[in-house]
């Protein structure tokens, strides 16, 4: 049966079956009292955490683009996000700041947060997350430039591997006037205080 033919409850049940097997493989007893419901809980959590696969970022953005003749730059900063590293399936989380130079149109501010969530709620790497947000806004919103800054902490670096507790990663993507005007990039960074 293909994924499209399955309903949410069937998908969750199938994921739960695999979690039960994982528990057994790591040496646990999935039938012991504390773990009996864990596979279903974990399956529901994973399905919720990856809701971005079942969302359309273009559709989200398209619902809130309006005429606008004003601002030189629009910035929404510190949009919190939670994602899962595609390499280790461990959480990474942080904040995204988005800036754009309107060109006759603007996007509803809450849609920027929804777009961040749509891309973050998938198995991800921070570099691609940053680039996907920038590209989508460039494609759907008339603009003279888009810039996205993302700062995150990765549990794959904190609780395994190198185990560096105070590390964080910052990524940027930009285009348009932000690409050609270093002073404009610096202004954005100063305004978001990175």
Structural key phrases:
single chain, alpha+beta, two-stranded antiparallel sheet, 7 strands, 42% helix, elongated
What is the terminal separation in angstroms?
48 Å
Taking all Cα atoms into account, the compactness measure Rg is 20 Å
- Helical residue percent band: 40-55%
- Please provide the count of β strands: 7
Please state the overall shape, judged from the principal axes of the Cα atoms. elongated
Largest sheet: 5 strands, mixed
What does this structure look like?
- By secondary structure, the chain is α+β, with helices and mostly antiparallel strands.
- Helix content is 42%, strand content 26%.
- It is built from eight helices and seven strands, in the order αααββββαβαβαβαα.
- It has helices spanning 8-25, 38-49, 57-62, 109-120, 126-140, 155-158, 177-180, 182-192; strands spanning 65-67, 74-85, 91-102, 105-107, 123-124, 143-154, 169-174.
- A five-stranded mixed sheet has the order 5-2-3-6-7, with helices on both faces. A two-stranded antiparallel ribbon has the order 1-4.
- α1 packs across α2.
- It is elongated, with a radius of gyration of 20 Å.
- The N and C termini lie far apart (48 Å).
- The model has no long low-confidence stretch (mean pLDDT 94).
